[in-house]
Amino acid sequence: MASSSTTQDRVLSRANHLAGVRYEIRGPLAQRALQLEREGHEILKLNIGNPAQFGFRAPDSVRLAIIDNLSKAEGYSHQKGIMPAREAVVAETLSRGIAGVTVDDVFMGNGVSELILMCMEGLLDEGDEVLVPSPDYPLWTAAVTLTGARAVHYPCRPENGFVPDASELAQLITPRTRALVLINPNNPTGAVYPRASLEALARLATERGLVVFADEIYDRIVYDGAEHVPMATLVDGTLCATFGGLSKVHRACGIRAGWVVFSGDKRQSADYIEGLELLSSLRLCANVPGQWAVPAALSGHQSIHDLTSETGRLGKQRRAVLRGVEASPYLKLVAPMGALYAFASVDTARVPTFSDRAFAFDLLEREHVLIVPGSGFNVPYHDHFRLTLLPNEEVMQELFVRLDRRLSDWATRR
Question: Per-domain residue ranges for the chain?
Answer without folding.
Answer: 15-56+306-411, 60-299
